[in-house]
Amino acid sequence: YTPGNTASCQPDACHLFVCRWALEFVMDAEADGLVEVSEDGDPSRRRRVHGMLKLYYGLNEEGKAEEEQESLDPCDINGPHFDPEHYLNKLRRECSLAELMDQETCMVKQIRSLDSDMQTLVYENYNKFISATDTIRKMKNDFKKMEDEMDCLSANMAAITEFSACISGTLQDQHAQITKLSGVHTLLRKLQFLFELPARLNKCLELQAYAQAVNSHRRARCVLRQYSHLPSFKGIQDDCHAIMDKLAQELRQKFRDGGSSAKDLAQCVELLLQLDEPAEELCDKFLSHARSRLESDLQGLEAEIRPYPSAPAVKDFIDRGCNEFVSSLCLVIASYQELFINHAQMANGKLHAFVDDLAARYFSLVERRIQEEKGVGDNSLLVRALDRFHRRLQAVAKLLPGSPVPNKGIEIVIRAATERVKQYLAALQSFYMDSLTDVRQALATPRLSVAGASVAGELLSSLSASILNQIKSVLASVHLFTAKDITFSNKPYFKGEFCSQGVRESLVVNFIKFVCQSSRQFCESAGDKGGSTPPVLLLLLSRLCLDYETSTISYILTLTDEQFLVQHHSPVTPVTTLCEEAREAAQKLLNHYVKVQGLIISQMLRKSVETRDWVNTIEPRNVRAVMKRVVEDTTSIDVQVGLLYEEGVRKAHSSDSSKRTFSVYSSSRQQARYAASYTPSAPMDTNLLSNIHKLFSERIDIFSSVEFNKVSVMTGIIKISLKTFLECVRLRTFGRYGLQQIQVDCHYLQMYLWRFVSDENLVHFLLDEIVCSSAHRCLDPAPMEQSVIEVICERG
């Protein structure tokens, strides 16, 4: 078809086939992207064009002819039975003139559109149509050449078949004769092998080719035994027996020499078994020879354990044991099982006893070497050594199922890890005690009181941080036992028990208990004056234990559980139990600190009372120096405690707390109330009134437990100090000026001590008791005027 020349189009069958094939080719090529459609048209137009062309040629979406039932309707314009006249008559009957005109217009548009689309496809794919035509022409030529070659091949095959039949017919008569001659030739070769066998065996014996000699003899043994009644075969058999006896003797000699390797030894045993040697005897000889070699390996390992300067590292020791002893043992087991597999019941018992005996000696050496690892610096070498040890024992487990050797090796690994944990616990305890020694040395350095108190706070922070960092460092070292690349780390028999009981309980919990117990020992070892333990250390340890109770213990145990994925299958110590123990230790330390500090101040007050002549003393002109020292020390203690503990709660202070006065009968304020009950001739005894008043006053517990705050601590210290002062006063006799001096001292103490306690009435009550007791013990009770006391105290 040439555009513009419709006369050249001949509607023959070949032309229709080519056009239809070309159309299918264009449509398939366009679907594969090989043919391009004009980009000016929109997608809906392209689909419409393809749909109309397919509908015209009766093709489906895949380009195949649709196998649908043909329409018999003569009015179906797309059907094969379409009748134009019938279709036009139907339209004229059913449609109006306007509808007929519209139908004509629509049909003309469809015809023009179809012609236009067909021409567009032809124009755009003209070269593809030309190429399709050339392809069809080439295909016709190629098929013709192929038909010629197939005819030639068929002729050749016929000639070959004819020639083969001719050869088979020619050789048919000689086939039986050839078969007979081949059998005779084979028999002669066998006879030749038999006659040459003695010489062949001697040659193998000279070259020590024992395996080849045994194989040759085994091939001929049955034949020689079958025909041993013939003299010639009998002679060959006797010669072979003599040679094989000599060969067996040489193989036995290799056992006795003891210089053969395990591989050569296994080969000797295999050859002797093929020569019908007794299996049980060979078992014993094989194991005896293997024992001598393995014992030499054990002796070499034992020599390395003996202490000398260049002792190898534990990993090198384990590597040598695995590479030499364990590897040789595995080779012996494998060779033994392969050789004596047909004698399992007898052989297995001997093998198990052999392996258990040597493995026990090897494990003993390994444990001795591991026990020499005392340092806790680098834990990786020991972990790697145990990992290699465990890996190699798994090979024994695979070769010898049911053997107790792997389990005993696992026990060694577990014991080594547990012992390592104990060493780390001892290292933590030693570090803690060394840290306390450093703290005590720092506290013993002469400093000003306030500066020393601030140093105590710094020492607490440093001590707490260093202990926590050391615990983290130890946990990181121990965590190497549970690394993912360690074979025994994820085994149930190791991980669960090691993490729970080994790390959490034996290491972390025991160290926390050690901190609490060692701290409590400072309270038990101290004497009346606190012994050699600085009071500040007691206060510092008390705060440390309290911090452990509030946060540190929970943090450490949570860190341990998360880091080691601890699963509490077995009973473990609850966090609350440890916190209670830490709080108990903190309470005991703080109570003891109060007692020690109170006794120190009490000692000063006691000496000041006992060493003075209160009857003949001079009139007081100032406050005694010991009272100033008491106030200074109390102030220093207040600063010291305030740096470590919170303030606490105080009762509301009165406006004249520092200006309260003390009467010599202040403890008997109710004297006038009771005096009317007695006759004037029998005046009320002031001591009796004082005792009656004490019965109804609130009892003061001097040595009660203190709370964890500064106010409670200072209240406890001041109670002990003033109570001691009171008891010392009750044991002395006072003159007029002695009583006045006590008044001055008590007023001075009242001016300052009320600031430190939770309830100022407590200080006032005790000082009131001191002045009253002095008055009761005074020979000439003449109190000093309050204004004079205030002047002296303000001047002091």
Automatic annotation (TrEMBL):
User: Which Pfam families does UniProt cross-reference here?
Assistant: VPS51_Exo84_N
What are the subcellular locations of this protein?
Answer: Golgi apparatus, trans-Golgi network; Recycling endosome
**What is the first-listed, main subcellular location in coarse terms?**
Golgi
Give an example GO cellular component term for this record: GARP complex
Note the superkingdom of the native organism.
Answer: Eukaryota
Matches recorded under InterPro entries = Cullin_repeat-like_dom_sf, Vps51
What is a biological process (GO) this protein takes part in?
protein transport
Record's keyword annotation contains Chaperone: no
Keyword field contains Coiled coil: yes
Annotated keywords:
Coiled coil, Endosome, Golgi apparatus, Lipid transport, Protein transport, Transport
Q: What does this protein do?
A: Involved in retrograde transport from early and late endosomes to the late Golgi. The GARP complex is required for the maintenance of protein retrieval from endosomes to the TGN, acid hydrolase sorting, lysosome function, endosomal cholesterol traffic and autophagy. Acts as component of the EARP complex that is involved in endocytic recycling.
Q: How does it assemble?
A: Component of the Golgi-associated retrograde protein (GARP) complex. Component of the endosome-associated retrograde protein (EARP) complex.
Family the entry assigns? Belongs to the VPS51 family.
Q: Which PANTHER family match?
A: VACUOLAR PROTEIN SORTING-ASSOCIATED PROTEIN 51 HOMOLOG
Name of the protein: Vacuolar protein sorting-associated protein 51 homolog
Source organism of the structure: Scophthalmus maximus (Turbot)
